[in-house]
Write a structure and sequence with these properties.
single chain, alpha/beta, Arc Repressor Mutant, subunit A, 2 domains, 3-stranded antiparallel β-sheet, 8 helices, DNA binding, DeoR/GlpR family transcriptional regulator of sugar metabolism, Tscrpt_reg_HTH_DeoR_CS, DNA-binding
Length: 231
């Protein structure tokens, strides 16, 4: 029997996908969320009864039908970084990616071999769908200031399909002593978890002015981490 937390996390993910995609099929939801089509149909019926979505033939659509967001531009620098990362990824490995620009380039460059992708970013899921060999696990929606969804995302981590082999995480600042910092509004608990786990961690940061941001400590650089800077 499924717990109420599992059901809540799944409903949360369905609504997040619809918010960004406008429409998604029952089959795609079952694949992304790693459950049966029957379970998805039951979820959609429940969410429709709560007036949170509209059922339609073969799937569901958002009530406000927002169009999906455009991908962040893949700069030459991001592609160069992505190429360096992809050459080190073994086929069949499980990847956690929390970096939109570099992450989009990494997913787009993956060869047609089996990979497992875990991410919060709808943009990466859209790119990953083009490669039929990538199994996708959607880890809830992105957070914004004031959201209280970290506990839901941390609960979902317990049900990941397999251990993470490689983590690609975008952070906000690395000080001179190698301490890694991130924005306190951008799911720091989730970033911290994946910066600790995994066979190797790739840390991407930008040369931005972070003095006005509320930063929290995410971890420290060590021999398992490689760092890349986006100017």
């Amino acid at each position: 029997m499924q717990s109420s937390i599992q059901v809540s996390c799944r409903h949360h993910a369905i609504l997040s996908l619809l918010q960004d995609c406008g429409y998604i099929s029952t089959d795609e939801l079952a694949k992304v969320l790693n459950v049966s089509v029957h379970t998805i149909r039951r979820d959609l019926n429940m969410l429709e009864s709560q007036h949170q979505l509209r059922r339609c033939h073969g799937g569901a659509e958002a009530l406000n039908k927002q169009s999906s967001r455009e991908h962040a531009p893949e700069t030459e620098q991001a592609i160069t970084i992505a190429k360096a990362i992809v050459t080190e990824l073994e086929a069949g490995s499980c990847l956690y990616i929390d970096s939109q620009t570099v992450g989009a380039a990494v997913v787009g460059l993956l060869p047609e071999e089996v990979y497992y992708l875990i991410t919060q970013h709808i943009e990466l899921i859209g790119i990953a769908r083009r490669n039929p060999f990538i199994a996708i696990f959607f880890l809830g929606r992105e957070l914004s200031p004031g959201d209280a969804d970290v506990s839901i995302q941390m609960s979902m981590i317990k049900w990941l399909p397999r251990p993470v082999d490689y983590s690609i995480v975008e952070v906000d600042y690395i000080d001179n002593s190698g301490i890694i910092f991130g924005d306190c509004f951008k799911y720091p608990s989730v970033k911290r978890h994946f910066l600790r786990g995994g066979q190797r961690q790739y840390v991407v940061y930008r040369q931005d002015d972070c003095t006005r941001r509320s930063l929290v400590k995410l971890g420290a650089m060590d021999r398992h981490k490689r760092v890349f800077c986006l100017a």
